[in-house]
Amino acid sequence: MLQLKLYQQRTLNELKEFLVDTNKLVSGSKIEPEKALKLVFNIKNEAETYKSLPDLVNTPYACIKIPTGGGKTLVAGYSLSIVFDNYLQDKNGKGLVIWFVPSDAIRSQTLKNLKDRQHPYREAIDAKFGNNVKVLTLEETLTIQKSDIQNNLCIVVASLQAFRRTDTQWLKVFQANGSLLSHFENLVEDTDFLDKDADGQIIYSLGNVIKINSPLVILDEGHNVQTSLSFEMLRVLNPAFILEYTATPRAESNVLVKVLASELKAEKMVKIPIYLSNTTQWQETIRDGIIQRIKLEKLAEKEKRQTKEYIRPIALLQAEQEKEDDDKVYVGKIKAFLIEELKIPEDEIAIKTAKNDEIENQELLLPKCKIRYIITVNALKEGWDCPFAYVLISVSNIGSRIAVEQTMGRIMRLPNATDKKNLDLNYSFVYTSSENFSKASSAVISGLEANGYSRADLRENTGKVTVEKTEFERHIQDKSIQIPYMGTKSKKDPLSFNRDLIGELFKIHENYKPFKVNFHDDQNQRIKIDIDKENEIYRITQGKLVLVLYPEDFSIEEVGNWLKINLRHTVISSSEMNQYIDKALKDLAKNHTVEELSLNRFRLKERIQEEIQVIINAYAKENFDKLLSKGEINTKSVFYTPERIIAISRLSPEHYQKHLFERSGYMNGEETDLAMRLDILENIAWWNRNREKEDFYLQGWRSGKFYPDFIIKTKSGKYILTEYKGEDRLSNDDTGYKDTLGKLWESLSGDNRFFLVSKSNMDSFLKEIATI
Q1: Where is the Helicase/UvrB N-terminal domain (predicted)?
Q2: In whole numbers, what is the pLDDT of the chain averaged over residues?
Q3: Shared fold status for 263-468 and 636-769
Q4: How far is CA 129 from CA 77, 78, 84, 134, in A?
Q5: For residue 178, with 0-12 CB atoms within 10 Å meaning exposed, 13-18 middle and 19 or more buried, which class applies?
Q6: Under CATH, which number does the domain 6-256 receive?
Q7: Any idea which architecture 263-468 has in CATH?
Q8: CA 648, CA 668: separation in Å to the nearest integer?
Q9: How many beta carbons lie within 10 A of that of residue 344, not counting itself?
């Protein structure tokens, strides 16, 4: 049998303790199950409060949080014996289990694995229940006999949809069925809870059979159940116990056990961190991803020579759609690009879509299989697993219905759950095609969160391996942390640049002002000379994009179209951007030739972006000042409370007594000096190295958020925000902006303070805060 990982065994142990303690209270002290459940759960989870299900207050409902790749189904298999042995003892290891899955794809996969006596999932169940196990489809259950349930553990694997009234299978579950007559013979218990027909007679339905047998309900990816409709569905099953397994619990879930992503990494279960690369051109995105896969295969060959382990890295390519459309990057277009442009052998490429499944009968893990590239749309987003999948290449529009986050979990499982000698084989790689890296990053982070991970597991791919983040708990116990954000009176969220300062009425083209572009640097002059050579074709690299230039084909329309494809901004719609570009090109064409504009399109793009940002910042500043003058901006509406556990990428070698968390992030020499002197101040309750882009921030009239370097809390309860700057950066524009914004926050937040600190004023700063 497969040996359990430490976190898996811990999960089962904690589940058992919960059941044993609850059962003791119910049977020994005669306490109502609901009260016993709340008491035991709340003792074991101080941060959580047990929430009873409507109309099922005496039915235990517990949730196990395990990130994707952590073996939820294996743990669920072992948990059956835990529940039957320690809470449902009266069933004597016999009865009904309804195993709900979120989709037909996962249903097919789960059925296949649970029916296979050689599979670890089935072995986990057979270890307790022996040969007295029946695994059934919903259709097979329509003819189940009373003796089947009396003499076996009958596991019915079904999708949630089948038990909803909107699904055609619902009728099969709840309509009269003569094949089930034996279940209703000699009923002696109260039958009021069973469904009746118009004449008041019990309906011989599968739904009533389930109710009679009061099943254990397993919710695989239980977050899909969290709607009032789904809870009503659970109620009509009359469950004896509900056990949910998910990577992303909802607010209504009673999370009994939480497995951290770091535990999976420590047990060599997943390929994290994930490295993200983004380019604007879909062809370049694919090319970069393919190069990475080839690099990984070379490392895999080296790994095989060293350890005998066979790995054939696979790249998943996510198209925008399956149907042919010249305006979309569809499946066929990607396949043609792989074969014709990148010269990939066709037998190494497979398509996996709803209509075309070329990997259905392929043994992807065997050396005889040639497949290295799988093109899909969203058919792999669930119910598919292959540890050889290392690279995800998504040219699907970021933010669309079919986005990269839906497929993230497919590349995270580490082959054979063992560390590889060649480091890159322990990681996974995502390549996206987006005009905005921030959007791509947000989409990937959403995918990580949807699989139970966090932004701590993401890296920007620079081609270098970085140290993995480590998670740390609070070191200082302070339950009253509420650091005031800058917000508005009318909203319960921190001030939003897009929502509050830009809004929906902003029109970029209405704010257009003529501007100049300087193209005549040394590089462009050289390019211009080259291009003027008669009848020559030149290959010129600007940035990362390689252009083949034909002087006679230049047109102002082509320049405009290129800019419209490559210029994007989060607060500007495409139509608005297009109008602005048209105005800008019309003006610039008065002083520059079409060839000059085309040849320098990258510099032109940058210059337009700069001008747009100036306009946006000015507009935002005007609105910010209006809100401020009206008294709308305050620090009394919304507050920041740090997480109990945080991830840190690069650790400081120092250990501090008063740092809020067990460890702090890396600091340079001057910052470390400040931290060490802070740490010994008598009046400091705690201080925290504020993580960039993850922790507390101030939002001002510029789009970027300001994350102060340090947050300090004094024993008198006052908060001090501190930004540290080297002497060489004290006078720059960014520092001035942050200083102004920080002092504004100070003026709005009562007794709290803000300080801009450098080496020259460190002594006076420490002397002053020692009295706060």
Answers
A1: 3-250
A2: 84
A3: no
A4: 11, 11, 10, 10
A5: exposed
A6: 3.40.50
A7: 3-Layer(aba) Sandwich (3.40)
A8: 16
A9: 17
List of residues 6+ apart from 89 with CB closer than 8 A: none
Q: In what order do the strands lie in the sheet with 684-689?
A: 684-689, 710-714, 719-724, 753-757
Instruction: Determine the pLDDT at residue 44.
Output: 75
What is d(CA 314, CA 316) in angstroms, rounded to the nearest whole number? 7
Polymer length in residues for the chain: 772
Residue 511 and residue 507: Cα distance in Å, rounded? 7
111-120 pLDDT, tens digit each:
999 999 999 9
Report the alpha-carbon distance of residue 709 to residue 690 in Å, rounded: 5
When pLDDT is averaged across residues 20-40 and rounded to a whole number, the result is 82
Q: Is 657 exposed, middle or buried (0-12, 13-18, 19+ CB in 10 A)?
A: exposed
Give the C-alpha separation, 365 to 262, whole Å: 27
Distances in whole angstroms, Cα of residue 600 to Cα of each of 260, 542, 757, 768:
49, 9, 42, 54
Question: Residue 137 forms beta bridges with which residues?
Answer: 157
Q: Quick one: pLDDT band at residue 463, thresholds 50, 70, 90?
A: very low
Question: Tokens in use for 201?
Answer: 């007679």
Cβ burial of 15 (10 Å; 0-12, 13-18, 19+) is buried
CA 667/CA 675 separation, integer angstroms:
9
- Residue-level pLDDT at 466: 40
- The CA distance from 136 to 648, in Å, is 46
Residue 535 above 50 pLDDT? no
Instruction: Report yes or no: 45 and 258 within 8 Å, Cβ to Cβ.
Output: no
Phi, psi for residue 712 in degrees, rounded to 5: -120, 140
Q: Which tens digits make up the pLDDT trace of 250-289?
A: 878 899 998 887 788 878 888 887 888 888 888 988 999 9
**Is pLDDT at 464 greater than 50 in this prediction?**
no
Report, as an integer, the average pLDDT of 299-303: 96
Strand segments (E) across 8-102: 61-65, 95-101
Q: Is 218 helix (H, G, I), strand (E, B) or coil?
A: strand
The per-residue pLDDT for 146 is 92
**111-167 pLDDT per residue, tens:** 999 999 999 999 999 988 888 899 999 999 999 999 999 999 999 999 877 777 666
Question: Would strands 538-542 and 639-640 be described as parallel, antiparallel, or unpaired?
Answer: unpaired
In the numeric block, the tokens 């099943």 are attached to 215
Q: Give 249 or 221, the one with higher predicted confidence.
A: 249
- CATH entry 3.40.50.1010 includes domain 636-769: no
Give me the long-range contacts of 657-660 (CB less than 8 A, separation at least 24). Answer: 658/476, 658/684, 658/685, 658/686, 658/687, 659/475, 659/476, 659/686, 659/687, 659/688, 659/689, 660/474, 660/475, 660/476, 660/478, 660/686, 660/687, 660/688
CA–CA distances in Å: residue 105 to residues 102, 151, 157, 382: 9, 30, 12, 7
**Residues 548 and 539: beta-carbon distance below 8 Å:** yes
Domain boundaries, the chain: 6-256, 263-468, 508-629, 636-769
* 639-667 mean pLDDT: 87
What are all long-range contacts of 710-714, with beta carbons under 8 Å and residues at least 24 apart? 710/674, 710/675, 710/678, 711/483, 711/687, 712/678, 712/684, 712/686, 712/687, 712/688, 712/769, 713/478, 713/481, 713/684, 713/685, 713/686, 713/687, 714/683, 714/684, 714/685, 714/769, 714/772
pLDDT at 223: 57
What is the three-class DSSP state of 488? Answer: strand
What is the torsion angle, in degrees rounded to the nearest 10, for the CA atoms of residue 604, residue 607, residue 612 and residue 613?
Answer: 140
Answer whether 129's CB lies under 8 Å from 135's CB.
no
Give one word for 71, left, alpha or beta, with left for phi > 0 and alpha for psi -120 to 50.
Answer: left
